[in-house]
């Protein structure tokens, strides 16, 4: 019986010490210090960015001008150069702050869609864009050229991929205070 009690105590001691981490306290502290140093490094980079914004260098001013420059074909916001999430976010921002975009030339690619008002029987034409996962969608209404194109004869097949280039505009329907956004004087390419 004594041997089994000694064996049981030895087994318990082995099991208790086996449950502990193999890392010593100094190793854990070193890991925590490494995480802390990464955080501090990122904060320093952010502080540098803020400093640069307050006191820009000639190089940073030039880079910003290039980023804000209108493209060679006169397009202020070319959403074709952005990934799906950025396009979705930009269109969403246009909906939130439309006054920032009025009169700007915008190019966007998406799926062509048409909707008809049940009350007025008027057709509304849209370019629908999705985020990268395809779970969220936004639409940008457009008016092709001066609006004289005949639907459906002159329009693309519904849900076909289109590129729209037009002037950002805000309007209200007669008898309503609701503001809508659209691209007017738009051109379409498939």
Q: Helix content range of the residues, please? A: 25-40%
Distance between the termini: 89 Å
- Calculate the mean pLDDT score and round it: 79
Q: CATH H-level name of the largest domain... which superfamily?
A: Nucleic acid-binding proteins
How would you sum up this structure, described in words?
The protein has 190 residues and is an alpha/beta fold. The protein has two domains: 48 residues; 113 residues, Beta Barrel (OB fold (Dihydrolipoamide Acetyltransferase, E2P)), CATH 2.40.50.140. The chain has four helices and six strands; from the N terminus they run αααβαβββββ. The protein has a five-stranded mixed β-barrel. β3 and β4 form a beta hairpin. The protein is extended. About 3% of the residues have low confidence.
Show the helix and strand layout:
Blueprint: H1 2-18, H2 25-54, H3 58-68, E1 77-78, H4 84-96, E2 105-116, E3 123-130, E4 137-144, E5 161-172, E6 179-189
Parallel strand pairs: 1-2, 4-6
Antiparallel strand pairs: 2-3, 2-5, 3-4, 5-6
């Amino acid at each position: 019986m004594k041997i089994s009690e000694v064996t049981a105590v030895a087994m318990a001691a082995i099991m208790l010490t086996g449950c502990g981490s193999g890392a010593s306290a100094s190793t854990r502290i070193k890991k925590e210090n490494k995480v802390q140093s990464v955080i501090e490094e990122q904060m320093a980079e952010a502080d540098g960015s803020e400093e640069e914004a307050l006191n820009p260098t000639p190089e940073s001013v030039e880079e910003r001008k290039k980023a804000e420059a209108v493209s060679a074909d006169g397009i202020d916001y070319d959403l074709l150069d952005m990934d799906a999430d950025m396009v979705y976010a930009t269109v969403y921002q246009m909906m939130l702050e439309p006054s920032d975009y009025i009169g700007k030339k915008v190019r966007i690619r998406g799926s062509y869609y048409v909707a008809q008002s049940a009350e007025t029987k008027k057709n509304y034409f849209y370019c629908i864009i999705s985020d990268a996962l395809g779970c969220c969608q936004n639409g940008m209404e457009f008016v092709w050229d001066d609006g004289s194109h005949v639907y459906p004869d002159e329009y693309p097949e519904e849900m076909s991929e289109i590129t729209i280039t037009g002037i950002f505009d805000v309007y209200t329907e007669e008898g309503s205070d609701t503001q809508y956004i659209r691209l007017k004087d738009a051109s379409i390419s498939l």
